[in-house]
Design brief:
The chain is α+β, with helices and mostly antiparallel strands. Helices cover 42% and strands 20% of the residues. It contains six helices and five strands; from the N terminus they run αββαβαααββα. It has helices spanning 2-15, 59-73, 84-91, 93-98, 102-106, 120-124, and strands at 32-38, 44-49, 77-81, 107-111, 117-118. A five-stranded mixed sheet has the order 1-2-3-4-5. Strand 4 and strand 5 (117-118) form a beta hairpin. It is globular.
Length: 127
């Protein structure tokens, strides 16, 4: 009898959940890579467009999405935009001057080479 109980107990223990199950990652919103490259210092970088985001999207959600995309693509730096015009204005002074407000309205976050996320609002005092 003792032996039968031991075998049942072992079987139950083997079927019991072992610790916390791995958390499922939240899905990414639809996005596209506008541009990517490698800087002269050897750090890979990229610009990401998420049309469904805006400056009103919580910063934590912007960070989660940009960080995950950057990690998946092995980028050391990344920028997050909600329009192509914002990205173009960020990289071209003449485009920014010809399209006032493009950068401020849809440049919505950066991930720097130290892994620190900052929203454009915080960087440039845009409100």
């Amino acid at each position: 009898m003792y032996r039968g109980i031991t075998l049942v107990a072992l079987a139950l223990l083997a079927c019991a959940p072992q610790g916390d199950a791995p958390a499922e990652e939240e899905p990414l919103p639809e996005y596209s890579v506008i541009e990517e490259g490698v800087a002269q210092n050897g750090i890979a970088w990229g610009s990401v467009l998420v049309r469904s985001f805006s400056r009103n999207t919580p910063a934590a959600e912007r960070e989660r999405v940009l960080r995950r995309i950057a990690e998946d693509r092995d980028w050391g730096e990344a920028g997050l935009y909600c329009s192509e015009d914002a990205q173009r204005a960020d990289f071209s002074r003449s485009f920014a001057e010809a399209h006032p407000g493009a950068l401020e309205s849809c440049a919505i976050g950066i991930l720097d080479r130290d892994g620190v996320f900052q929203s454009w609002d915080d960087l440039y005092g845009v409100r």
